[in-house]
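Researcher: Structure prediction, please.
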Amino acid sequence: MADPVSIGVLVAASTAMTAVGTIQQGMAAAAQGRAQQQAQEYNAIVKQQNAALARQQAGAREEQQRRQARQLMGQQSAALAQAGIGVGFGSALDIEEQSAVRAELDALTIAYQGELQATGLLAAAQQDIYQGEAARAAGANAQSASYVSAGASLLSGAASYGYYTGVGGAKEVAPTTFTK
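Model: Predicted structure follows.
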């Protein structure tokens, strides 16, 4: 059988290795959480930029739609005038007004679609930010838990060391016998 001091040294070394490993795992979890947060923040920035781009593109398409509509309405007025139909009153006015309303509705639909796309991207960016914050918090919590776990390992190891070496007043207790 090994002597108590040798067993105590092995217990102390094992306890120290366990504590150090536990702390390193916690530090790695915290670093991973921070890295994940940075990645999620980058994703959020890209989505925010894409939202701004979606609005710009929708604005450009909206303006193009309005230009095309003005050109088409001008051609429509010219065709009505060439056909000898009076422009600006009666049925011709109704046709021009209806065309203008449809053209504006098309332009507003394009703007609305762009705004919907931008809003969706901004919501996704907020979700990325939240996920990044959650990842960082989980890593920080894992690191804190590793300190507690390492402390518990050290205390347990110290108790075992004391038991095997008799340090700290640990004594063997004789078995108790019960009699009737």
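Model: The chain has a mean pLDDT of 87.
Researcher: Thanks, that helps.
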